[in-house]
Amino acid sequence: MSDEEHQFESKADAGASKTFPQQAGTIRKNGYIVIKNRPCKVVEVSTSKTGKHGHAKCNFVGIDIFNGKKLEDIVPSSHNCDVPHVTRTDYQLLDITEDGFVSLLTDSGDTKDDLKLPTDEALLKQIKDGFAEGKDLIVSVQCAMGEEQICGLKDIGPK
């Protein structure tokens, strides 16, 4: 049909999307939602009735899963919201470096060295104390929208 050659440049990375659409009216408390480009856990949802100017509105209050900040958003209940893909993975803690990074053992036997210690004081103290005592520790890493953070700790006994 045409003699022209078309070249397409892809700017996206390979792999799955960081979010998926979900109708605002179906998102419930303890679910996840993206508010102001941040992944949040929904702590409160209220829905207003339809008024003379259209849609029922959902008022979401969410807590950012990485920094703990409270965010709010109001969306018509029939519209779609972005919902982040949130995953939790457990890794064995191998080492803590001087500059605050941790070395973790993956299921495949490789090491993961790109995570910092958590900012949560209580969790940070538990990790450092347990590591200093020579315990075998399993850390839970929460991942959403390209960010990762240690969010939990399990003690599986002495080494």
Total of domains:
2
Q: So, CATH architecture of the largest domain?
A: Beta Barrel
- Total DSSP E strands: 11
Q: Describe the largest sheet.
A: 5 strands, antiparallel
Strand content: over 45%
The CATH class of the largest domain is Mainly Beta
H and E order: EEEEEEEEEHEE
Secondary structure tally, helices: 1
Radius of gyration, Cα only, in angstroms? 21 Å
Strand arrangement in the largest pleated sheet: 9-8-7-10-11
What low-confidence regions span 5 or more consecutive residues with pLDDT below 50?
8-15
Helix content: under 10%
Name the CATH homologous superfamily of the largest domain.
Nucleic acid-binding proteins
Given the helix and strand composition, which structural class is it? mainly beta
Give structural attributes.
hypusine, 5-stranded antiparallel β-sheet, IF5A-like, SH3 type barrels, OB fold (Dihydrolipoamide Acetyltransferase, E2P), protein biosynthesis, NA-bd_OB-fold, 159 residues, elongated, mainly beta
Q: Brief overview, please?
A:
The chain is mainly beta and 159 residues long.
Write the layout of secondary structure elements.
Layout: E1 19-23, E2 32-35, E3 38-47, E4 57-64, E5 70-76, E6 80-84, E7 87-96, E8 101-105, E9 111-116, H1 121-132, E10 135-144, E11 147-158
